[in-house]
Amino acid sequence: IVGRGGGSLEDLWCFNEEDVARAIFRSTLPIISAVGHETDVTIADFVADLRAPTPSAAAELVSRNQDELLQQLRHQQQRLDMAFDRLFTRKSQRLKQLALRLQNQHPQNQLRAQQAKNEQLTHRLQLAMLRQFENTQQKFLAEIVQ
């Protein structure tokens, strides 16, 4: 805010100086001109980003924008928190999947799985051999009886 309360034309004349106008125009920050009272007009008013009728009005404009910005900042913080929570949940689930996969691929676990499979196949083979033996035995007994 470039401003000064009311005064005579001479009191406000510095806001008509070329150096002041150029400095306001070149500023990378937004400038609000608030010189004198509502009826006072200076060159600074024309080169500033915004003109406020009085310094008090300029302060209200800035503070209102600050409240809006704070509200927007809080909203963005909430969105960021939610996005972080979602990302954390996804990454945690992925880590659990990878840990389970690593556990399943551990040689000791693979050996246990193969041993269980071998036991199952051995049991099935024994049952098949027993049936084959029983079938052969029945055929043999049937031939003896005839």
Automatic annotation (TrEMBL):
The answer to keyword Hydrolase applying to this record is: yes
Catalytic class of the enzyme: hydrolase
Q: Name one Pfam family in it.
A: Exonuc_VII_L
Q: What is its EC number?
A: 3.1.11.6
UniProt keyword Nuclease, yes or no: yes
Recorded GO cellular component terms are: exodeoxyribonuclease VII complex
Instruction: Domain (Exonuclease VII large subunit C-terminal): give its ranges.
Output: 1-140
Q: Which UniProt keywords apply?
A: Exonuclease, Hydrolase, Nuclease
GO BP of this protein: DNA catabolic process
Q: Which GO terms describe its molecular function?
A: exodeoxyribonuclease VII activity
Q: Which PANTHER family match?
A: EXODEOXYRIBONUCLEASE 7 LARGE SUBUNIT
Q: What is the name attached to this protein's record?
A: Exodeoxyribonuclease VII large subunit
Q: Which organism is it from?
A: Haemophilus influenzae HK1212
In the record, what lineage is assigned to the organism producing the protein? Bacteria, Pseudomonadati, Pseudomonadota, Gammaproteobacteria, Pasteurellales
